[in-house]
Amino acid sequence: MKCEYEPDFQREVIYVNKVYNECSIIDCPTYRIPIPPTYPLAVNIVDCAITNIVAEGVIVGNDEIDVVVNFVMNVEYDSNGTSQFIQQTAQYRRRGVRLEGAVPGMNVVILPLVRCLSCRAVDGGTVIECDVGIYLIVKAVALVQLEVLGRFAPEPPECEQVSPIGCAEWFELAESGAFWP
Predict the structure, then answer these.
(1) Do the Cβ atoms of 64 and 98 come closer than 8 Å?
(2) Are 89 and 75 in contact (CB under 8 A)?
(3) Model-level pTM?
(4) What does the pLDDT look like over 153-167, one tens digit per residue?
């Protein structure tokens, strides 16, 4: 049997991660950032950004994964006309995530989307509370070798800028599949 394919395709042997199963985690926890006593009190929150995102997953038993996401919250706030900046490390943790087909020896790949959605000064300006949108794709993977017909993919389109959203919109977008390619 002769294989028909485009002339610029070639037979290739590739070593890739096969996804055995995957799931998503969607959450919107609130984090509290205490203002140190030597800092002025918070009046208005100007901006919040998430940086240094590190996501890790461990298969702790058949069909069970523990997930940890560490990140840094960077908040700019106004203290009666003076801009102040504060950073706080934060952690999102989910234990006992059920993922059928995950077995010890496989790897866990986590694709994290973590966004600061809104912040507000509370407790008389001594604390800043921030709602953080968490959208994680968790995959149980293992390396496999495949023979394929292939070529290099074309360059992707230019990225678009995203507008700020709140918790309700975060859940709505996640459930609509907007974060899934």
Answers:
(1) yes
(2) no
(3) 0.78
(4) 777 877 777 677 788
